[in-house]
């Protein structure tokens, strides 16, 4: 598209000094970029008919209205198979993770009935399969277990777990409505890799309890406590249990290996946990396992979710722990659910609205907490299975919910014979897949700081506790983000031979510089947190340059600051540039600004910086600026200009 | 200087794909930029003779060795006058601020004897005058007053104040040694303006107690409590006191006004507080003020600082409050001292090493806490007076210390007659100068967010408490810093008429674009906290562009990402670019990278991103990239290339 050309040529070949945009314009643009970068309303804002607009609006906020009318039998066939596959995974995982959270196993099954239904109504992703997750289950057990014992007061403990899910739901919904999806972005990939790896490690260690058929154990999650407990209660070890466990684990790992070798056989590994549970049940039932040290899950009542809304407990004694557990698990669950939803969406060139997803997750947890469910999200493993099994829409979640309801209504008591060791093998196998060595090695190779963030998360979780590990890793990530802006890169530019391009002299060693002119490129916003650094750095560039060039008899007369990479500037930043100019003036060096961007130019105009520096010292490109300086150098030499000819005192202790 | 030119021409006209620098090289460079941006050791690293090097090293770490040998009588004449002037200010201010901190007035005088001596040995600034400050005095009173009452247990309270100074000293020294000066940079100019304004407001309100000669008052500092106390104890109001106070205040404000009109008369306003104290003493002595409701300071013992090292109290009951007070006041004191030192240094083209200053302030407070002093720093007002009075070196601090010692030894008891109302007038007059309306208006005009940060500090201090106000304001500043990196600016580039420059189309409305080619400029680092935003934003640019151009029949075939402004990238950022490429591929759009900077290129190579994208898709300049794309467009049209001719489906719900 050919934009119409202004007749005024001068406006296009010099820096644009026109009046800044209005405050309301910039504010609206800033708010939009901050909270609505994906422009979610564009799809129905353009619609002119009010009714159609309303319809599109409802479809946007409640996605099921969008996809259900277009639903057909062909899609249903895919979703049915996927739904069945994830149900067969949901049952053993539900029971296992409920044990991890120290709640009755039936709660794990309940949690795969109501929440998937809610998600299928409000959720945006077509691939997410809803369910409980190991990391959050353990986090809840760790945090709530500190204030109420799940052994001596299981009822109160359970009610607090429901309340935690409620807090999580409210928190997630709020984040979504306030469009604070950006907060979740601060859980970086490195943090998640480290945290997940650490969590998987401690969960694996914990499963040794089930593997060895032990009855006593520690409630702490860190590696030292767990290993100590295992050694301390070594008289409780049962070889029968361990043998069964190892066999199950080998089987599960083999199916995983098979999936890796032949991705089409993914369903073998998806079904494997169910097979382990069934074989385990039959085996335990036949040999009367409990008499041989093989403990079983125990009583599982028939019937679908009872209401639990009246059990929500906001007692001020427990509220701090509940709030903490709710918010931290809410964060982790969002990070996991949104990340996985996004990855599959990207693979299929779809768009997932993170903030809308948060609201869907929030609703799902609020209503879950009313109906005897604990925290659910879109787990990595289950979602991957759902996707591989061919799920096309959120219908697969509805199908899972229906099958789960049938299971709860008719089959639940059968699972009471499941041996704990089978659950431990299932958990351990799942966790071994979450320890991502390759990713850690990749991080080490590409970015040492990312690797450090990852390791801080890993070791924090393994040796201290899950929340400490997570916060440590996130804290380091934020620190890095702050350092990026506190220490922005700057470089010296030189001209590339046979071209008119000015590039970093370190990156392109063949560049040439003009004697007497120093071109510096600054990057990142210039503002309070980095302005001292920038001032020091510019003065150091000049000092270093003078130290190099003094032997050759040249002194710097012009410093050009290329602001192409400077996205914005604040009041302190502008004052810094004024200070720099004053310092340079005192040394007889002239300063010029090259290519300030829109926002920077607006601030320059508003703060009258332009008037202080002079319009003639603003240039549109480095080349033009260098030409102007060369002209002035030439002129000053011809005229024998005193100020330019005067030798400038280079004194390291003064500059 | 003409850099030698490589014979290899190809290396200079394409992007440099050579191997990344070694990890140790980049680490050393990063650490240097983070902790030693001012390259402090350069001055003696170059020295070859070991003895001379040692001498220069000692001179660097203990600046008095540098300036004292060169000291002469001419400099001494200047410093003597400045020293006398700041002594005359130090006595009334010392007594006043000690009252503000609820410690005996003599402590304020002690604090102007030992700390200036220490600073003159280790301090780097030639202009700072050491002394106590109002804001920190009140902050200490507020924080320590919460755990121990200065009225019922004054001895313990005083010991905790010494301990606070000790904690401050250790904290400041540590920050300096760890080269964490960057932390102080997070106290932005806006924060300091707001915090100082708020503090000045509540201190003025508090002085109404002294003005009105009241005996009862609140210990809280917020405006509501103070106004309530004033009204509540209105039966204690004494008109005599108020009358004297108003007269003093008018006199002090008049001298300030005089200074503003005729800057040469600065000494009048510098001496005025001393005049008020002397006149007040004489007046109170003559009329027996206490009988007329004019309270006086009371007993002041002769003699210089007694040792207080044995009084430092680390009782665990009080330690949290002491730590909190020590660290917060340490921060504020550093921010004030370093900022003022730096401003005068810049004015005189000198350099002040922030980290070294921290160590000097730290030593001064540690030794101060051993010798009955409380927190000292380089206050704005006193330093300005010192500078205006002609101080040339830190000798003026030594002279002040000598005069202060003489005062303590011989004259202290005279000041016991000082009326409290005189002190209140002195404090109030000083505080009125700290409420910087002009700066707030300037902030409002130039940057609304800076103004908001400032106002948050102001109202937080006035209506809640000093620490809350400070943290709120700093928190908003950090949030903004994070938003800068979480929402980096991006823009669409177009070619400026009659040139080969590509610039922001919004900033330069006359630019033209090539049909089918979209050039986007990204800014700031690309990394975990902004990669989702960047992905969404690039896709939105394309969507918007296609919505505009579809009516004209052009579809986008090339997207060029100009990374000139991208200073660095992390692992998540690289993955994002891979994702973007995949999304574009699916739409039949080709992606190319323009001018990646050194660090970014290194990461690209390490992560094998180059291999994924293909070297042919890297360009050194936008112009070159556009030429390459135009060539490919031309070719595809000529050859009737199917993939390029195929109309691309533009579907808002899918993109």
From TrEMBL, chains A, B:
It holds the Pfam family Sulfate_transp. It is found in: Membrane. It is a multi-pass membrane protein. Residues 507-629 form the STAS domain. One of its GO terms (cellular component) is membrane. It comes from the Eukaryota. The chain crosses the membrane at residues 103-122, 128-145, 157-180, 186-205, 265-287, 321-346, 358-377, 389-408, 420-437, 449-479. NCBIfam families: sulP (TIGR00815). This is Sulfate transporter. The gene is TorSST1.
């Amino acid at each position: 598209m050919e934009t119409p050309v202004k007749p005024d040529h001068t406006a296009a070949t010099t820096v644009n000094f026109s009046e800044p945009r209005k405050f309301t314009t910039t504010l609206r643009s800033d708010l939009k970029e901050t909270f609505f970068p994906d422009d979610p309303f564009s799809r129905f804002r353009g619609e002119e008919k009010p009714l159609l607009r309303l319809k599109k609006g409802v479809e946007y906020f409640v996605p099921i209205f969008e996809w259900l009318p277009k639903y057909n039998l062909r899609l249903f066939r895919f979703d049915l198979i996927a739904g069945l596959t994830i149900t067969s995974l949901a049952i053993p995982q539900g029971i296992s993770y409920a044990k991890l959270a120290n709640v009755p196993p039936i709660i794990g099954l309940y949690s795969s009935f109501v929440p998937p239904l809610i998600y299928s109504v409000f959720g945006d992703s077509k691939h997410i399969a809803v369910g409980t997750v190991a990391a959050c289950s353990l986090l809840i057990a760790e945090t709530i277990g500190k204030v109420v014992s799940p052994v001596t007061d299981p009822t109160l403990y359970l009610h607090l777990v429901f309340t935690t899910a409620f807090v999580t739901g409210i928190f997630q919904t709020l984040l979504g409505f306030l469009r604070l999806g950006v907060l979740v972005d601060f859980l970086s990939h490195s943090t998640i890799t480290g945290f997940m790896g650490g969590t998987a490690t401690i969960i694996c260690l914990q499963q040794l309890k089930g593997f060895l058929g032990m009855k006593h154990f520690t409630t702490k999650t860190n590696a030292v406590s767990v290993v100590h407990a295992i050694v301390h209660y070594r008289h409780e070890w049962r070889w029968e249990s361990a043998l069964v466990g190892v066999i199950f684990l080998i089987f599960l790992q083999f199916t995983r290996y098979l999936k890796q070798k032949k991705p089409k056989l993914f369903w073998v590994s998806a079904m494997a946990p169910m097979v382990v549970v069934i074989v385990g049940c039959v085996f335990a039932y036949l040999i009367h396992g409990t008499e041989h040290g093989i403990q079983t899950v125990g009583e599982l009542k028939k019937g679908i979710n009872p209401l639990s809304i009246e059990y929500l407990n906001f007692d001020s004694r427990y509220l701090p722990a509940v709030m903490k557990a709710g918010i931290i698990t809410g964060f982790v669950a969002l990070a996991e659910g949104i990340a996985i939803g996004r990855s599959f969406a990207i693979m299929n060139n779809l768009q997932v609205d993170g903030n809308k997803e948060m609201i869907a997750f929030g609703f799902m947890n609020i209503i879950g907490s009313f109906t005897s469910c604990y925290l659910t999200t879109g787990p990595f493993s289950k979602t991957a299975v759902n996707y591989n099994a061919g799920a096309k829409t959120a219908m697969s979640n509805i199908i899972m919910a229906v099958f789960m309801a049938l299971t709860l209504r008719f089959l639940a008591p059968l699972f009471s014979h499941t041996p704990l060791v089978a659950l431990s093998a299932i958990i351990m196998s799942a966790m071994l897949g979450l320890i991502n060595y390759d990713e850690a090695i990749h991080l080490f190779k590409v970015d040492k700081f990312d690797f450090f963030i990852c390791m801080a998360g890993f070791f924090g979780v393994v040796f201290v506790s899950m929340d400490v590990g997570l916060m440590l890793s996130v804290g380091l990530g934020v620190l890095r983000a702050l350092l990026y802006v506190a220490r922005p890169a700057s470089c010296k530019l030189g001209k590339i031979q046979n071209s008119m391009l000015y590039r970093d002299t370190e990156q392109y060693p063949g560049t040439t510089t003009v004697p007497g002119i120093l071109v510096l490129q600054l990057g990142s916003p210039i503002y309070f947190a980095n302005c001292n650094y920038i001032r020091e750095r510019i003065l150091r560039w000049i000092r270093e340059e003078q130290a190099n060039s003094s032997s050759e008899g040249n002194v710097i007369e012009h410093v050009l600051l290329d602001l192409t990479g400077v996205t914005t500037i604040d009041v302190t930043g502008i004052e810094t540039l004024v200070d720099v100019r004053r310092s340079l003036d005192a040394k007889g060096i002239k300063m010029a600004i090259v290519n300030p961007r829109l926002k920077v130019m607006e601030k320059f105009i508003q703060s009258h910086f332009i008037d202080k520096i002079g319009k003639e010292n603003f240039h549109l490109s480095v080349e033009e600026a260098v030409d102007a300086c060369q002209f002035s150098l030439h002129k000053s030499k011809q005229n024998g200009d005193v100020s330019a000819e005067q030798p400038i005192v280079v004194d390291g202790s003064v500059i």
